[in-house]
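Inverse folding, one chain.
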């Protein structure tokens, strides 16, 4: 019985039927024009901004009953003076209408409070994130490195087997601007915190 578990695990975690690795990423490259994009692997992309930061984009697939969703995670990393581990979740406030963003963390050390205070000190960051349509946004700090991960609602594909259909939600120009601006502003804030 125990010998069957690894093979069942491979069966359980396989790609869903109809999933074509890299196809949705090709569509995303078209949405990201005129920015320089470089394919790193089948499901990974490197986006270089004119200001210098390099954003890693990775394709994610989530299985559902008779369907699957292909999403993309945008990730930017850098050095931070904060050394205490921290996971900061960024969520939009409001149930019916958006009314700003909320920064949540379970960490109670001084570094966490300093980072939240720095984010609140620049309302442009919160205002930009409040207009951005994202599923998840997380700012993680470990061992002197920070990483901002944003998973956008658009730039994703919904594939259904019954009825058979594919629908790509394109990343509109305004949402692309907000997404890239969010990365740039957080990067600049973390550089200022290092000084």
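Residues assigned per position:
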């Amino acid at each position: 019985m125990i010998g069957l578990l690894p093979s069942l695990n491979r069966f359980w975690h396989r790609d869903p039927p109809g999933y074509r690795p890299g196809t949705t990423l090709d569509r995303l490259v078209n949405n990201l024009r005129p920015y320089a994009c470089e394919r790193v692997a089948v499901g990974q992309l490197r986006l270089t901004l004119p200001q210098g930061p390099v954003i890693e984009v990775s394709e994610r697939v989530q299985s559902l009953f008779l369907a699957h969703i292909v999403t993309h995670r945008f990730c930017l990393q850098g050095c931070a003076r904060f050394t205490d581990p921290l996971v900061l979740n960024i969520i939009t406030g409001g149930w019916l209408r958006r009314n700003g963003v909320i920064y949540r963390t379970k960490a109670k050390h001084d570094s966490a409070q300093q980072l939240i205070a720095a984010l609140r000190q620049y309302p442009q960051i919160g205002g930009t994130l409040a207009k951005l349509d994202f599923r998840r946004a997380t700012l993680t700090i470990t061992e002197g490195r920070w990483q901002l991960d944003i998973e956008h609602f658009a730039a994703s594909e919904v594939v259904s087997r019954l009825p058979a259909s594919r629908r790509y939600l394109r990343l509109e120009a305004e949402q692309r601007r907000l997404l890239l601006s969010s990365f740039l502003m957080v990067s600049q804030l973390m550089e200022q915190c290092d000084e």
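The beta strands are 36-41, 44-48, 54-64, 67-79, 86-92, 101-104, 134-142, 145-152, 156-161, 164-169. The chain has a mean pLDDT of 88.
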